[in-house]
Write a structure and sequence with these properties.
CATH class of the largest domain: Mainly Beta
Largest sheet: 10 strands, mixed
CATH topology of the largest domain: Jelly Rolls
Radius of gyration: 22 Å
CATH architecture of the largest domain: Sandwich
Shape: globular
Order of helices and strands: EEEEEEEEEEEEEEEEEEEEEEEH
Strand content: 25-35%
Structural class: mainly beta
Length: 333
């Protein structure tokens, strides 16, 4: 929290004017003499700053305030063409064709993730397929990847999937975000998972997305603007699901696990030499994943939207903390 000065109004007592000037504590990002600080919104978690939410579990944070530098471990990036614009809090990073940031040092905390929460704000135009040619701003758009030299879609990654809203009852103003994660844990056969979360009425609007994974229970939950995804919002191998699903180490046979497959359990990442933001790990220069056939496949593209306030925790936040994070970040705290 930072302190800001607030001037109380004149108080008249017995015909004499008494001016009181006090200092109060607030968590606003900035203050000025002409604009009184705003109190943090009341929320279920009783926090007054987003930084107070599970601070010991926070292992990576990007504010994107004019820089790609990660704020928790001070990981720095080489920026190729990414720019900065007004965001949901301060500035945000703006993607474009052939624009990305590469981190040659990923630290140790991200590689040690067994459970996780990844939270971020996104603002994007509608995305549809790019076939038969790669059209800028269309096709699946790579957003963030903790690269894996042995696995095309990384240890942990986020991309924006094409979605036309053509499904029955679907809102054409919907975005679809895909979470990718891979585990090298003992006994894990189905090592790579890619659930997709539908975000209705989110095209061209700042929208918060949160995924949590609990290694102890194998439970994955997707949230949109602080609320668990609704009916049929989370697509998986045997979905769709209502915002939450169980992640298995092998083929469950059905959504009710008729094969009695074990859960994936605590994640095990490896082969991470770098991470990037703004594209796919094979579209960077040099490539972070070198086994892909070509750069610029006709089904994919660089990220063309805006990204802000990205956080990664080494634990699965509960629903109260997720909702509190949304309320506070939206209000600028």
């Amino acid at each position: 929290m930072k302190k800001s000065n607030f001037k109380f109004s004149h108080l008249w007592i017995a015909g004499a004017a008494l001016v009181l000037i006090g200092t109060i504590s607030s968590c606003s990002k900035s203050s000025s003499s002409s604009t009184p600080p705003v109190k943090p919104p009341t929320n279920p978690g009783n926090y007054d700053s987003s930084n107070q939410i599970q601070p010991t579990a926070l292992v990576a944070y990007w504010g994107f305030n004019g820089s790609l530098t990660e704020g928790k471990q001070n990981l720095t990036a080489t920026n190729t063409g990414l720019t900065f614009v007004n965001g949901v809090k301060g500035q945000a990073v703006q993607g474009a064709t052939s624009s990305f940031g590469v981190y040659s040092n990923v630290g140790t905390a991200l590689l040690a993730l067994q459970s996780f929460t990844i939270s971020f704000w996104i603002n994007s135009a509608a995305v549809d397929t790019a076939f038969p040619t790669n059209t800028p701003g269309h096709g699946a758009q790579g957003i963030f990847f903790l690269a894996d030299t042995a696995n095309q879609f990384g240890n942990l990654g986020i991309d924006l999937e094409p979605y036309k809203g053509s499904a029955p009852g679907a809102n054409p103003d919907t975005l679809q975000v895909k979470l990718s994660f891979h585990s090298y844990g003992s006994g894990v056969v189905w090592a790579g998972w890619g659930p997709e979360l539908l975000m209705p009425a989110s095209v061209g609007k700042w929208t918060q997305v949160v995924f949590t994974y609990n290694g102890g229970s194998g439970t994955l939950v997707g949230y949109v603007n602080g609320v668990q995804g609704g009916a049929n919002s989370l697509a998986g191998p045997y979905g769709p699901f209502n915002g939450t699903e169980t992640v298995y180490a092998n083929d469950p046979g059905s959504s009710t696990n008729t094969n009695n497959a074990p859960i994936m359990g605590n994640l095990v990442f490896k082969n991470a030499l770098a991470m990037e933001v703004g594209t796919w790990p094979w579209d960077t220069s040099p490539q972070l994943f070198t086994h892909a056939a070509v750069k610029g496949n006709n089904w994919e593209d660089d990220f063309h939207g805006m990204l802000d306030e990205m956080r990664i925790y080494n634990a699965a936040l509960n629903s109260t903390d997720v909702n509190s994070l949304y309320i506070l970040e939206k209000a600028g705290f």
